[in-house]
Specification:
Layout: H1 2-5, E1 9-13, H2 25-34, E2 40-45, H3 50-60, E3 64-67, H4 73-82, E4 87-93, H5 97-106, E5 112-116, H6 136-145, E6 150-152, H7 161-168, E7 172-173, E8 180-181, E9 184-185, H8 187-204
Parallel strand pairs: 1-2, 2-3, 3-4, 4-5, 5-6, 6-7
Antiparallel strand pairs: 8-9
Helix pairs in contact: 3-4, 5-6
């Protein structure tokens, strides 16, 4: 459904402490094997140690790792050595100015950054799918200073995606709750979202 609507990547959500869209690793592997190129497959993982992430990836076999929690720099280096052909996207949960510093520090170790609106400091971590918008001025600052492609996430929907793209100018956008109804992907919301993106592209040239 997402590919037909126009998605260039699919986010496949493994076990998380909270948030929507979690599916079994066996299902992730089946989907990843069927997705037609050039559509990318992202394994969303909350694991933080390289050994555990590598084991999970070998089960799921996606083209990209999306690390939704903080991963230590030494662990990122281990991932790069062990999985040289796999792209690594580090999620930065934009909560304040410190998030800009975090993004700039980790950028040389990954292929891209994804800027989201979670909160890792809660008793039950929020690592995505919150439906909340964060401060786009901070996301723009990250995009301008990090030196790596930036994906924008966090509360994006048909009504605000044009404003978000104008404010941040990201490489791409990532969404979850904005195209779901009753916990499932909604075909109408998907098509409306991509129509809004297309209108924005036409309007901005």
């Amino acid at each position: 459904m997402a590919v037909t609507a126009g998605a260039s990547a699919l986010g496949l959500v493994s076990s998380m402490p909270s948030g929507p869209g979690v599916i079994a690793e066996e299902t992730i592997a089946r989907i990843a094997a069927l997705v037609p190129p050039p559509v990318a497959t992202f394994l969303l993982t909350s694991r933080q140690e390289a050994k555990a992430i590598i084991a999970q990836h070998r089960c799921c076999a996606t083209s990209t790792l999306q690390l939704v929690d903080h991963v230590a720099h030494d662990e990122l280096r281990k991932l790069r050595v062990a999985l040289p052909g796999i792209r690594i996207v580090q999620v930065i949960h934009v909560t304040g100015v410190a998030s800009v510093e975090e993004a700039v520090a980790v950028a040389p170790l990954v292929d891209a950054l994804l800027l989201d609106s979670g909160n890792q400091k809660l008793p039950v971590k929020e690592l995505g799918g919150t439906g909340r918008v964060h401060d786009w001025s901070l996301s723009r600052k990250i995009r301008e200073t990090a030196g790596k492609p930036v994906f924008l996430a966090g509360g994006l929907n048909t009504g605000n995606v044009a404003s978000a793209v104008a404010a941040v100018k990201p490489f791409g956008v990532d969404l979850c709750s904005g195209v779901r109804s009753n916990g499932r992907l909604d075909r109408a919301k998907l098509h409306d979202f991509f129509a809004a993106l297309a209108r924005d592209a036409t309007d901005t040239g």
